[in-house]
Write a structure and sequence with these properties.
This protein has about 70 residues and is α+β, with helices and mostly antiparallel strands. About 50% of the residues lie in helices and about 15% in strands. A 3-stranded antiparallel beta sheet has the order 1-2-3.
């Protein structure tokens, strides 16, 4: 379907919203990431977040410290 939208609203593509100057994960993928995060897949999810949202890396780092403190 041919739909014309403003670029400021972002383009939804493969679980991310792409803006002219940045990219963000959609909320569904953010919730999935938080639910599935554990020590065995921490590096993988950290790289995934690094490509889309730099601000979320800080949150992932804190969650990883919590996981390490629980051990």
């Amino acid at each position: 379907s041919d739909i014309i939208i403003k670029t400021s609203r972002g383009l939804k593509f493969l679980g991310a919203i792409i803006y002219p100057d940045s990219r963000r994960l959609n909320k569904r993928n953010q919730r999935r990431l938080k639910r599935r995060l554990n020590l065995s897949n921490l590096a993988s999810y950290r790289g995934f977040i690094k490509q889309y949202e730099f601000k979320k890396i800080r949150e992932i780092n804190y969650r990883s410290l919590d996981l390490l403190n629980d051990i």
